[in-house]
Specification:
The chain is of the alpha+beta class. The chain has one domain. The chain contains four helices and four strands; from the N terminus they run βαββαβαα. The longest helix is centred in the C-terminal third of the chain and has 19 residues. The protein starts with a strand and ends with a helix.
């Protein structure tokens, strides 16, 4: 898995380094959700919320995900997407958080 250089981390996460290390090692956490930057159905970027247990599937081992955020719980992840969308609008005048993040990263 690949982590965004300026990874968004929820303030509810107590030890982000440990969580990140655990995710890389394949350990799961019951309450951890990640925000992924993925390719949408039409080829454009799309932001997805996923429970960290899904990262252990064969697909994600073969296709490393691009993680842009770590949240504590689904509600926290939804709030993080909302914050990212507002940040994207303030910076670009557009509501697309996925495009905003893709333009700021090496996401292809």
């Amino acid at each position: 898995m690949v982590f965004y250089d300026k990874l968004y981390i929820s303030p509810l996460i107590r030890n982000p380094r440990k969580i990140r290390r655990d995710l890389q090692r394949g350990k799961g956490h019951l309450s951890i959700y990640v925000l992924l930057l993925a390719h949408g159905p039409e080829g454009g970027p799309q932001l997805e919320i996923m429970h960290c247990a899904n990262l252990q599937t064969r697909y994600y081992r073969a296709h490393p995900p691009f993680i842009v955020g770590i949240a504590n719980g689904r509600a926290d992840a939804v709030e993080m997407v909302n914050d990212l969308t507002n940040e994207a609008f303030q910076m670009t005048g557009q509501w697309s958080a996925a495009k905003y993040l893709a333009d700021r990263t090496a996401f292809h």
